[in-house]
Structures are given as structure tokens and as C-alpha cells.
Amino acid sequence: MSEALDRSSAHVALVRRIEAGDAAAEAELVAAFDRTVRLWIRRRIQDADGQAEVFQRVLWTALQKLREGGLDDPRALPGWLRSLTCNQVKMYLTRGDHARFSPLEEEGLSPRPDPLRDLLRREQGALVRELLASLRHPRDREVLYRVYFQGADKQVICEEMGLGRDQLNRVVSRARERFRTLVEGRRGDNLLPFRQKSEK
Predict the structure, then answer these.
(1) Which residues lie below 8 Å from residue 147, measured CB to CB, with a gap of 6+?
(2) Taking the complete model, does pTM exceed 0.85, yes or no?
(3) What is the 3-state secondary structure (H, E, C) of 125-152?
């Protein structure tokens, strides 16, 4: 039970980081579900080229939707990915032409191991935490960390901080802008700022 809860919390945190524009989180998603998604695809598609194409389409579609906040319940991430996989498999099997589709490779999100890239991502993660710690207002640090790194439920945050939902959204928005200002000052570090997204 505890292990299942840990996995669920990890999925929530991962989704929140992707929504925030964390490129490292996107790569983590691809790596974490690489084997599972490929296994689901191989059950329905026999040829290697078809498997590779559908894999690319599944993960690319997932990333596009997650970037836009398209998953209402991040705890359902595995089941949601399976549903996306089934849909992409059906679309592939009903299409006549199959052009090569490789956006993950083009964006540098290939699931194949790359020790140097992994090191750079870890260093970027450390830089993000350093910048968070340098925010002047403690509440800014708290809400950004809890929303984007812990993946905490916003209702829980509202209750614990004594805020309404709209108030929390405004606090997060202002904190994100202050964080973005810090990031702009460190642009040479190739650090992506939090991507603006609609609040829910």
C-alpha cells in the first residue's frame, strides 16, 4: 500500500514538473515508461518500424497534453498512458501510409542512456533549487516548491495556508513571475523558466 502511494505521489510530482516546463521531467517520463509502452505496442504491432513510430507518437502526444495541463488527475498517469497507447495503435493499424515520425529524438528526449545529458539535467535541477532558495518571500518558495516539485494537491495547500483557490492561483502566478526574473538573470546557465499555464 505504501509503495503504491509513493508511486502515485511520484507521478503527481512528475506531471506537475512537466506542466511547469521542466525539460528534465519530460526526459524522466520518457525513460520511466519506455519499456512499458513498448511492451503494450508489441502486443498489437509486429514490425519494428511500426512499433518505433507508434512509440514516438504515444510519448509525443502525452508530452504535448501534459505541457498544456491536459491530465486532470496525475495519479492516473499509467492508465492514461495506456489509453493513449491503445488509441495510437488503432490509428496506426487503420492508416495506409506510415511516414517516419521521430519528434522525441529531434527534441533530445530519446530514452536511450546519455550519461552527459543526465549529468547536465541533475546540475540544472540543483540550480533551480538554488534559485528557489534565493527568492525573497518565504511564501513564494513554499508554493513553488509544493506545487511544482512535490506535486502537492492544491486543495491541501489552500487549507494548510488558509487561502482560497483563486488566492492560491494569484500567489503562484506572482511567485512564478518573481522566479522568472531570477532565471532571466541566469540565462547563460541554459535554465528553462516555468512555462506559463492556465490555472485550474
Answers:
(1) 16, 20, 154, 157, 172
(2) no
(3) HHHHHHHHHCCCCHHHHHHHHHHHHCCC
